[in-house]
């Protein structure tokens, strides 16, 4: 790991896949911030152990599911840690606990993001070969849309998720904000493995209902749907 210091923020209810994600981040981040919600492991989330990488567990004691709040809890924690270390620039990978990251993901995303003056970067999952910098809020082809389960933020830019969108669409809203602040960058060549896409949403009717509400909230804020 070199250059700008990087962290990872991971909301998790303790699914076993979290261990594989953390293992894939060794040598890529300074620390992992796990935002523990509705924790299902045995014992306290504070007992989380993993070899080779520090893990800081932040507990959200509220019972409702709000991924935007979990992201923000993690981002605020990273900002405090960066301040303690005296960093004026830092990167944050916001990632789901069912993802496996390839080697060099954060170095590639962060390097390209800062080279292009963007405040967000995300990996191309459609097999494209072209790097694309989006600088206007608005819909783009689905092949160019934000990878909502793994994206990198320029930490000092201070972006935070809109907590009025509790389950879906706040990633798109962050993307559109990033475009207005300097750009959101699609980076080819570093796809991540997403192991259980939409598993929790499909398993819970209340989350599917929340997704519909979040879409309407997005439209009310931005005047149009993202896709």
Q: How would you describe what is shown here?
A:
The protein is of the alpha/beta class and 227 residues long. It has a single domain, classed as Spore Coat Polysaccharide Biosynthesis Protein SpsA, Chain A (Alpha-Beta Complex), CATH 3.90.550.10. 33% of the residues lie in helices and 19% in strands. The protein contains six helices and ten strands, in the order βαββαββαβββαββαα. The protein has helices spanning 17-25, 67-85, 105-116, 170-181, 199-203, 205-222, and strands at residues 6-12, 31-36, 55-59, 91-95, 99-100, 120-123, 132-134, 150-154, 184-187, 193-194. An eight-stranded mixed β-sheet has the order 3-2-1-4-8-6-9-7, sandwiched between helices. Strands 5-10 form a two-stranded antiparallel ribbon. β1 (6-12), α1 and β2 (31-36) form a beta-alpha-beta unit. The model has no long low-confidence stretch (mean pLDDT 92).
List key phrases describing it.
227 residues; Spore Coat Polysaccharide Biosynthesis Protein SpsA, Chain A; eight-stranded mixed sheet; two-stranded antiparallel sheet
Proportion of helical residues: 25-40%
Main structural class: alpha/beta
Give the distance, in angstroms, between the N- and C-terminal Cα atoms.
36 Å
Number of domains: 1
Runs in which pLDDT lies below 50 for 5 or more consecutive residues are none
- Mind telling me the CATH superfamily name? Spore Coat Polysaccharide Biosynthesis Protein SpsA, Chain A
CATH topology value: Spore Coat Polysaccharide Biosynthesis Protein SpsA, Chain A
Mean pLDDT: 92
Strand content: 15-25%
- CATH domain class: Alpha Beta
Helix run count = 6
Taken from the alpha-carbon principal axes, the silhouette is: globular
Q: Strand count, sense and closure of the main sheet?
A: 8 strands, mixed
């Amino acid at each position: 790991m070199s250059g700008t210091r990087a962290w990872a923020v991971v909301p998790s209810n303790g699914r076993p896949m979290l261990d594989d994600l953390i293992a894939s981040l060794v040598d890529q981040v300074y620390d992992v911030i796990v935002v523990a919600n509705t924790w299902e492991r045995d014992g306290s989330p504070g007992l989380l152990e993993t070899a080779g990488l520090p893990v800081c567990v932040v507990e959200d004691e509220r019972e409702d599911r709000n991924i935007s709040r979990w992201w923000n809890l993690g981002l605020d924690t990273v900002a405090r840690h960066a301040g303690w270390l005296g960093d004026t620039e830092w990167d944050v990978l916001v990632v789901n606990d069912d993802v496996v990251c390839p080697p060099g993901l954060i170095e590639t995303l962060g390097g390209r993001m800062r080279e292009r003056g963007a405040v967000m970067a995300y990996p191309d999952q459609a097999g494209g070969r072209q790097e694309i910098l989006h600088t206007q809020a608005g819909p783009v082809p689905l092949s160019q849309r934000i990878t909502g389960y793994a994206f990198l933020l320029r930490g000092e830019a201070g972006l935070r998720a809109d907590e009025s969108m509790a389950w879906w669409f706040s990633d798109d809203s962050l993307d559109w904000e990033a475009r207005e602040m300097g750009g959101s960058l699609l980076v080819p060549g570093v796809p991540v493995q997403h192991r259980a896409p939409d598993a929790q949403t499909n398993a819970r009717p209340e989350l599917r209902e929340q997704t519909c509400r979040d879409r309407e909230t997005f439209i009310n804020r931005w005047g149009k749907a993202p896709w």
